[in-house]
Amino acid sequence: MATRGTEAAMAMAKGKSVFVKVDQLKPGTSGHVLMVKVVSSNTVLQKSRSASQNMRQTRIVECLVGDETGTVIFAARNKQVDYMKPGTTVILCNAKINMFGGSMRLAVDKWGRVEVTDPADFVVKEDNNISLVEYELVNVLEE
Predict the structure, then answer these.
(1) Short-list 46, 47, 44, CA closest to 74
(2) Measured between alpha carbons, how far is 112 from 110 in angstroms, rounded to an integer?
């Protein structure tokens, strides 16, 4: 009988993704694969700039995403913004936790992927927003 930890290790060895839940996310971690629903989105930055002869647009949207265990703020950038419509279910591959102002933000950089998937059958637990928890970096001196 395999335990949860050994099942995860075996799945990783086979190259399969191991999905985590929002309440399992911790500061400074990366490589997460999550299936979440988009609860809301808020445009933070949208500007155009000219790079050589073509126009490049920078877009950043903060989205509240979650699953049945809680919610977290996801910072969507550029092409990712198109997928993050409220009510959409997405899979975030190789997501990482960035710290912003002492709170956690989920992000997917160029090494990750955002995929729209079939609607999930879970109800988002909106009363457990882990981005509202403030963390403080404490240096421990060893004697």
Answers:
(1) 44
(2) 5
What residues does 47 pair with on adjacent strands? Answer: 58
Q: Using CA atoms of 80, 84, 85, 88 in order, give the dihedral in degrees to the nearest 10.
A: 120
Instruction: Answer whether 0.85 is exceeded by the pTM.
Output: no
Q: What is the spatial distance between Cα 118 and Cα 113, in angstroms, rounded to a whole number?
A: 16
- For 75-121, the pLDDT digits (tens) are 988 888 888 899 999 999 999 999 988 889 999 988 899 999 888 88
Q: Which residue has the tokens 């970096």?
A: 137
DSSP per-residue letters across 47-105: EEEEETTEEEEEEEEEEEEEETTEEEEEEEEGGGGGG--TT-EEEEEEEEEEEETTEEE
